[in-house]
Amino acid sequence: MSSSPLDPAAALPTDPPGGAATLGGLALDAEALYVELLRAVRPLVQAETALVGVWSGGAWLAERLQRDLGRSGEVGVITSRLHRDDYGSRGLSGTADPTRLPFDVEGRPILLVDDVLFTGRTARAVINELFDFGRPARVMLAVLVDRGGRELPMAADASAARVSLPASQRLSLARAADGRFTFALEERR
Q1: Which of 73, 96, 163, 171 has the largest count of CB atoms under 10 Å?
Q2: How big is the chain by its Cα radius of gyration, in Å?
Q3: Exposure pattern of 80-108 as b/e (b: 16+ CB <10 Å)?
């Protein structure tokens, strides 16, 4: 697993720049973390590897990684909504696009990409969804931020940063019109 602590240059005590979320006095710069994620996934991606982004932040990351890695073709987009274990309490989300995998999954290495890894439940759900389309040769997981708090035995093969947040807080990735990433720190609903 490739990971690094918060880059001190990205951790600012006050007035974070655009793209940074303040976490207990430190700023988490989504663009700086993206550069670290790109570096971390390079050795994981081979010619036959397909990138699949988890809707929505992971899909944005996968699209940009595909481009910045100089890869042709489309990335896949996957949603967890049909395999969530909290379906009874949350219901069916109408905000996620349906899964779109423009390639054959069978026997292919897959790099799942997501913005934040927390409990592991979304990762489990998208892996279940992925196997509905075939049996990949291997499934790897790359995340921008691993925030700990795992409830399932799930680990990222690559992560740009590890942070600790109270369970009451949520770290959300956003994408600006120019494609730049930013983080927002929100109270969980």
Answers
A1: 171
A2: 16
A3: bbebbeeeeeeeeeeebeebebebebeeb
Residue with tokens 């590897």: 49
Q: Using the predicted structure, report yes or no on whether residue 63 has a pLDDT greater than 80.
A: yes
Instruction: Give the C-alpha separation, 111 to 14, whole Å.
Output: 36
Fold annotation for 8-187: Rossmann fold (3.40.50)
Going from the C-alpha of 102 to that of each of 74, 78, 169, the distances in angstroms are 7, 11, 35
Q: Which amino acid is at 7?
A: D
Kindly state the helix (H) or strand (E) to which residue 21 belongs, with its residue range: strand 20-23
Task: Give the span between the Cα atoms of 84 and 100, in whole angstroms.
Answer: 18
Per-residue pLDDT reduced to its tens digit, 132-156: 999 999 999 999 999 999 999 999 9
To the question of pTM greater than 0.90 for the whole model, the response is no
The ranges assigned to domains in the chain are 8-187
For residue 96, the cross-strand partners are none
- Distances in Å between the alpha carbon of 184 and those of 5, 70, 105, 151, 179? 19, 29, 33, 23, 16
Of 20-24, 86-90, 175-179, 180-184, the range with the lowest mean pLDDT is 86-90
